[in-house]
């Protein structure tokens, strides 16, 4: 398994701002984590922590695509995301 260096948002102003700013694009259902995390950030988010602007753009894009203002409802978005992950053989 690959190892990716990550950094904590504590004491890293650019990373903390990028994380806070991208969260505003997500539906309210994403505000609370579904499960406790061992080290704070989920792995996929933490894997972008060395590049705060990339993190912001990548995850705010996803948040925008999940907008409740779009014609698909939440379950349809989730079904599409699940099928893309299955097709790409993702484990998460």
Largest sheet: none
User: What is the averaged pLDDT score?
Assistant: 84
As a percent range, the share of strand residues is under 5%
The number of E-state strands comes to 0
What is the C-alpha radius of gyration, as a whole number of Å? 14 Å
Give helix % range. 40-55%
What is the tally of helical segments? Answer: 4
User: What form results from the Cα inertia axes?
Assistant: globular
Instruction: State the assembly state of the protein chains.
Output: single chain
**Alpha-beta content class:** mainly alpha
**Terminal residue distance:** 14 Å
User: What is the H/E order?
Assistant: HHHH
Return residue spans where pLDDT drops below 50 for at least 5 consecutive residues.
none
Can you give me a brief rundown of this structure?
With 92 residues, the chain is an all-alpha fold. Helix content is 47%, strand content 0%.
Question: Can you describe this structure?
Answer:
With 92 residues, the protein is mainly alpha-helical. The protein has a domain at 13-67. The protein contains four helices and no strands. The protein has helices spanning 13-23, 43-46, 52-65, 74-87. The longest helix is centred in the middle third of the chain and has 14 residues, at 52-65. The model has no long low-confidence stretch (mean pLDDT 84).
């Amino acid at each position: 398994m690959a190892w990716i260096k990550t950094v904590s948002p504590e004491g890293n102003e650019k990373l903390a701002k990028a994380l806070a700013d991208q969260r505003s694009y997500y539906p309210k259902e994403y505000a609370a984590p579904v499960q406790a995390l061992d080290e704070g950030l989920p792995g996929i988010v933490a894997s972008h922590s060395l590049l705060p602007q990339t993190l912001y753009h990548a995850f705010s894009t996803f948040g925008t695509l999940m907008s409740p203002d779009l014609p698909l409802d939440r379950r349809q978005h989730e079904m599409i995301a699940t099928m893309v992950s299955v097709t790409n053989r993702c484990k998460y």
